From TrEMBL:
InterPro entries: Glyas_Bleomycin-R_OHBP_Dase, Glyas_Fos-R_dOase_dom, PhnB-like. This is VOC family protein. Pfam families: Glyoxalase. It comes from Streptomyces vastus. Residues 4-130 form the Glyoxalase/fosfomycin resistance/dioxygenase domain. The lineage of its organism: Bacteria, Bacillati, Actinomycetota, Actinomycetes, Kitasatosporales. CDD domains: PhnB_like. PANTHER family: PROTEIN YJDN, PROTEIN YJDN-RELATED.
């Protein structure tokens, strides 16, 4: 899989409705995972979207999720840029450069879904997510 660069949108509890709307607009395949699917079935977030991805036949990719408790929702500043792929060295190199001089909110480390993931804000105030998947055989 090639490395992808795409927007990642944050929502205030209505990610499912928003992503379904974008599917109507752009077409394609929508996949969503709830917080319950990742061990948070006994929380108020159980049915909310932890991660959603819309992929269209024309090559567009849009990702989104509902914010977790304690995350402030700010319309107009509710997006990140996501870098995803399998090339560990390439993506770690991007991470090092993007996080240098900025701030790290989630260190680049193995996560509960099995991938290596991190979040940072670069020195210009842009939020980035880096997700490194294991190579598919």
């Amino acid at each position: 899989m090639a490395t992808r660069l795409n927007p990642y949108l944050s929502f205030d509890g209505d990610a499912r409705q928003a992503l379904e709307f974008y599917k109507e607009v752009f077409g394609g395949t929508l996949s969503v995972n709830t917080y319950a699917e990742f061990g948070q079935g006994d929380t108020p977030l159980a049915d909310k979207i932890m991660h959603g991805m819309l992929e269209t036949p024309s090559g567009l990719t849009l990702m989104g999720a509902d914010g977790a408790p304690g995350e402030e929702y700010k319309p107009g500043n509710n997006f990140s840029v996501a870098l995803t792929g399998e090339d560990d060295a390439e993506l770690r190199g991007y991470w090092e450069k993007l996080s240098a001089g900025g701030s790290v909110s989630v260190p680049l480390d193995k996560q509960m879904w099995g991938d290596v993931f991190g979040m940072c804000t670069d020195r210009f105030g842009i939020q980035w997510m880096v997700n490194i998947s294991e190579a598919q055989s």
